[in-house]
Amino acid sequence: MTQENHIKIMEKLTQEDEVLVAFSLDGTLIRRGEFRRAIGALQLRLRQTLGDKQKHLALCCDNAYSFAVALYASIGLDQHIVMLPNSLSETLEAHSNVFDAVISDQPLTFRKRPVIATNSTSLTEQKHNVELDLSLSKSQIHMFTSGSTSDPKKITKSFHQLLDEVLTLRTLFKDQLEGCHFIATVSHQHIYGTLFQVLLPIQSLQPFCCDQIEFQEQLSALPEERYALISSPAFLKCLQPNDGTTSRLSCTFSSGGPLLLGDSQRASAILGSAIYEILGSTETGGIAWRQQLADDSAWRPLPQVKIDVSEDSTLVVSSPYAGGTQHIQDQIEILDDGSFLHKGRADRVVKIGEKRLSLLELEAHAQSSPLVAEAAALTVIKRGRERVALVVALTQNGNILLAENGKHHCNEAIRLYLQQRFDRVLLPRYFRYCTHLPINKQGKRVERQLQALFIEENT
């Protein structure tokens, strides 16, 4: 049934040339006929450059439409895909042993492997045979984890695993997505963006935006259509009240980390649309979803996803998108109705002075202070001992206190607030203040970046 559905979608992509596939923020419209010609042109170039043997192709495209062309052209020829986090020369060099060629829409200085352009005008103006039968494809997709808690590792999935997950999402959110154009503030080079910003609209026969939304003002400038916004906590937390942003959004999706209830409600009010949070990872694919209505809103497993809890209260996921059973270092509590509460990362519970401390709980309490807008707690080694450290983005009141009284006074004010709940030995000994907490392109904090803030930091 699933395969039949995918075949019907691909058949429709070969018909009705004038139907809209993608659009740019500058008003450019791309239709099915042009999409197919671009795929056929790239497939010809791939054959000319690489022959007919199965290869591993790294996709490095800034533009979501170029990425879609590269993806469907490669899968149509039964090639394997390597999705790198970015197209920086050092990234390509570091992973050059896992791919045979690069497909890109950007001029790259990398020369260790063939670089094939997605945007050859001379080819797209001609007619070429297009291979779009994906039903028998054995293509594999190699992705890399975000590296937020450890070094990135390679994860391999079949293309059909991704399509099956997309079909589940289409069915689950059918009413919310009906008639929507897709726009995104996240990169299509990672699994969340690949699924929601590229595959979901194409497999739903709905248009998607070629460009990544970077600023809230770009939402206000969109033409009058119904939109589904694919976003992240990092973007949603920074939204400012703006009348022009509302009314165009039918729904908003967020992934990359849980939203605080206040952030979710505030973003929903500003955008004028419901916020649907997706819990998942590169390893597991989608796990669960929720719409926050109160504190500790429970997560509901996605269809076909089974969850369990291990002896140490961590999450066990079984689903076709995960390729079997995966043990995740997230602490959960399963409720009677099958939903569950997310209790944070198990590896974020540390021992300081023989006392256990949840860094997640420390962050949450710090963020309830009138001085703290956002906080990240971690442990650092100083003088041979493990200590608690806190990276803080201050509120307006906090910035005034810092400017007028200095860092030491601000440190002590936050420590005094935290002492309401935590033993003195568990209080942060080291502080760093910044305008925004450092995050990667997926909107996730990277442990190494936080640790780097405390190198040679003695106060």
TrEMBL record:
Residues covered by the AMP-dependent synthetase/ligase domain: 135-316
Pfam families per the UniProt record, alphabetical: AMP-binding
Source organism, top-level taxon: Bacteria
Alphabetized InterPro entries for the sequence: AMP-bd_C_sf, AMP-dep_synth/lig_dom, ANL_N_sf
PANTHER family (UniProt xref): ENZYME, PUTATIVE (JCVI)-RELATED, PTHR45398
Protein name, as recorded: Aconitate hydratase
